[in-house]
Amino acid sequence: MLDLQLNSFRKIEPELIRRLKLAGIHSIDNLAIRSPVDIAKLLDIDIDESVSICNRAAIELEERGIISRSSLMEYTDLSGPNKLYIKTGSQELDELFGGKGIETKAITQFYGRSATGKTQLCHTLCVTVQQLQANYKSIYIDTEGTFRTERIAEIAKARGLDPGMALQNVRCIQPVNSARFESILQQDLSMQLNQENDIKLIVIDSIINLYRAEYSGRGMLSQRQSRLSKIMHLLQNISRVYDVAVVITNQIHTSVDGNSYCLANADRPMGGNVMTHTSTFIVRLNGNSSYLMAEMKGSPCYPEGVKCFGINEKGIHDISHIHTD
Fold it and tell me: Which tens digits make up the pLDDT trace of 6-63?
């Protein structure tokens, strides 16, 4: 709790601590992932004072080793800081990620047209993360109404896990609007992560759906991008501070009227530079239900490449195994 971790916060008045708790911020971790602007509004304080508080929270995390401030020369392991890697279910697809899978402390974005395997991949990851360790949990934020408990159970059973236990380790949240979605990320999610250290995967399927519906038209574009930037920055901090893998799905630009702008941006992910600059890995999905392709479009460490995979009762799998599974 926050009042047990105040060794670097001695100058904060007890009243500010009380108001932080009322706002749902109960730990230094919760505080550090929020922006100074947010904290200034929550506490009704000057922005400079808020900057000072947020800075001290970040320093506290560095001193506790949660956020690394080491120089490159201090790394003896070439793989870098400790991370977990969640298998996708397909060795071919894992090859896009150096053969390791989806990593924690990062945001991985999968985008593509409808029926290209985005949701099936999300369901599969909720099961394969439990193959790393039986008590590892996932939080699945479903904005499209496509989450299916029976699919989780089917994939778990096909992969040798107990379906009932697998379902207990997946919490699905279905926000009805973008306002609720943002409050889930800013309050509910950080509080739960602070209470449970076995949550290793956060899925958002999809990141753009609510904003696309509520902030439609060019007149709302600036507001939509501003809100997307804020939540993506928050997700970056959550992934690093809490050592979780954040997997988001995204839709693509479409054209129904021949608009030249839309045609020029066809098959590009929604959200523009906000999404591109804040996603650690960006993968484009294409194909159909029997033959799907994944293309690495953005990565700080892996080369561009294309891999094929399929979908069956095990979720995502290698097409070469389609006749033997």
Answer: 444 555 677 777 888 887 787 777 788 888 888 888 888 888 888 888 888 877 777 7
Q: Which two tokens stand for residue 92?
A: 């071919």
Residue 76: inside a domain: no
What is the rounded distance in angstroms from the CA atom of residue 111 to the CA atom of residue 121?
11
pTM: 0.82
Alpha-carbon distance 188 to 193, whole Å? 9
Q: Using alpha carbons, select from 175, 233, 183 the residue that is nearest to residue 204.
A: 175
In sequence order, what DSSP letters do the residues of 105-123 get, joined into one string?
Answer: SEEEEEEESTTSSHHHHHH
Question: What span, in angstroms and rounded, lies between the C-alpha atoms of 33 and 36?
Answer: 10
- Does residue 56 sit in the same domain as residue 94? no
Nearest in space to 123 (alpha carbons), one of 216, 213, 205, 239:
205
Q: Please give the Cα distance from 90 to 72 (Å, whole number).
A: 32
CATH code where residue 90 lies: 3.40.50.300
CB 95 within 8 A of CB 222: no
CB-CB neighbours of 195 under 10 Å: 10
198-216 burial code (b ≥16 CB/10 A, e <16): ebbbbbbbbbbbbbbeebe
List beta partners, residue 112.
Answer: 285
